[in-house]
Amino acid sequence: MEQRNFRTARTAVRVHELTDGMLVHARNAADSSYLAQTVWPSRFIGEDYLGHGCLVVTAYAVTDRVPEGVAKGAEPLLTVLPANYLRDTAAAAEAHRLGQCSSYCRFPGH
Ligand SMILES: [Zn+2]
User: Is the C-alpha dihedral spanning 81, 87, 88, 89 positive or negative?
Assistant: First the structure.
């Protein structure tokens, strides 16, 4: 699919237009913090276009905060999980089930 020209675009990036390049920052933030990142469309289109990396802005999902620079009236596009999040969570759940929890186990029942 051909990409819109965001230097002349009048509407923010949409979820089906996201590329790996646009999500690099969200992935890095999620991986380094171990916290999911919510991705929003930015207002940096048209005359304010700063490059593909700036078409989205992110915030930690747990804070439920709307980050600076979100396009007016926009809703979140998606949430990026830290690398290995599902694998690590599954492993922690299995350890908990077996009573082999780590000291930072987050599952209830201790
Ligand atoms: Zn446990």
Answer: positive
